[in-house]
């Protein structure tokens, strides 16, 4: 078995395991409302995190940029393929954790997403794909392009949906009433 085919088999197994765990969690395969569009921009609705592309897809792309930088610092001697597989494994772990009752309840209690009930399975797998794309872009551009992309995404998301990766993490860890009030006005 070549390294490429071993990596492809690992990715296929990771995707299957992630989908299987999410199915055990009771997640729907696709949008529970039945909307077949591949994207949705309705963050405050039952369509949130149910489609292949949504505003939060950009934050998962950012995960890929961050994982590339972090793994380059933590494992500089590891091959790009190994770092890519590690990034995808972290992304899969986050998708499973994010869809656990603990995190879903935390989102409902502490953030503007009081109606959040978890990602669809295909949304979670697409999020892993967005992370992989972010990692791939980061591997091919100078570091300052990755920073510029993140700043652009963070600003545009803050202006359009009043949320972004930074705010999502902040509000999940330690909510602030002022930020919650601002986000609730969307």
Low-confidence stretches: none
Count of DSSP H/I helices:
8
Number of DSSP-assigned strands:
0
Oligomer: single chain
Helix and strand sequence = HHHHHHHH
Distance between the termini: 52 Å
> What is the overall pLDDT average?
93
Please indicate the count of domains. Answer: 1
Largest beta sheet, briefly? none
Gyration radius over CA: 17 Å
| Percentage of residues in helical conformation | 55-70%
Strand content: under 5%
Structural class computed from helices and strand pairing: mainly alpha
Question: What is this structure, in a nutshell?
Answer:
With 186 residues, the protein is mostly helical. It is built from eight helices and no strands.
SSE layout:
Layout: H1 3-24, H2 57-74, H3 80-98, H4 101-110, H5 121-140, H6 143-161, H7 165-173, H8 177-184
Helix pairs in contact: 1-3, 1-5, 2-3, 2-5, 2-6, 3-5
Features of the shown structure:
0% strand; mainly alpha; 186 residues; 8 helices
Task: Describe the protein.
- This protein has 186 residues and is mostly helical.
- The chain has one domain (3-184).
- 67% of the residues lie in helices and 0% in strands.
- The protein has helices spanning 3-24, 57-74, 80-98, 101-110, 121-140, 143-161, 165-173, 177-184.
- α1 runs antiparallel to α5 and α2 (57-74) packs antiparallel against α6 (143-161).
- The radius of gyration is 17 Å and the shape is globular.
- The chain starts with a helix and ends with a helix.
């Amino acid at each position: 078995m070549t390294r490429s085919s071993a990596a492809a088999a690992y990715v296929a197994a990771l995707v299957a395991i992630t989908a299987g765990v999410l199915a055990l969690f009771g997640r729907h395969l696709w949008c529970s409302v039945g909307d077949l569009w591949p994207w949705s921009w309705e963050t405050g609705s039952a369509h949130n995190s149910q489609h292949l592309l949504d505003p939060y897809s950009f934050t998962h792309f950012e995960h890929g940029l961050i994982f590339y930088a972090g793994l380059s610092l933590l494992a500089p001697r590891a091959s790009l393929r190994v770092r890519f597989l590690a990034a995808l494994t972290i992304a899969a772990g986050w998708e499973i954790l994010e869809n656990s009752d603990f995190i879903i309840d935390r989102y409902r209690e502490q953030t503007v997403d009081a109606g959040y009930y978890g990602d669809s399975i295909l949304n979670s797998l697409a999020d892993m794909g967005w992370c992989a794309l972010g990692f791939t872009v980061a591997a091919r551009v100078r570091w300052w392009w990755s920073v510029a992309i993140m700043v652009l995404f963070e600003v545009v998301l803050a202006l359009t949906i009043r949320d972004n990766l930074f705010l999502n993490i902040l509000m999940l860890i330690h909510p602030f009433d002022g930020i919650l009030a601002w986000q609730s006005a969307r």
